[in-house]
Design a protein that fits this description.
The protein is α+β, with helices and mostly antiparallel strands. It has two helices and two strands. Strand 1 (2-4), helix 1 (35-48) and strand 2 form a beta-alpha-beta unit.
Amino acid sequence: MYFDIDVLNVEYFSDTYFANPTLVGDGSGGGKMNLEKLAQILNLLDKSSKIVGFSIAEYLPFSAYKLQELFKDFIFSKN
């Protein structure tokens, strides 16, 4: 199974390409799906088929990157 994070609305999940206002994209626009709808779809697929693999595409952890940038210049000493 293949899941593209970009189907999610940035209001509900912010680690998508379209959540970053500095990225231009291809003009296709951001996703509209909320997390409840995604859970319903995944549960339906799980009940109706045998899932043998799961791939998540275009997950962009902007918050983690911001934290990395924040802490990159700190040197934490051991007391």
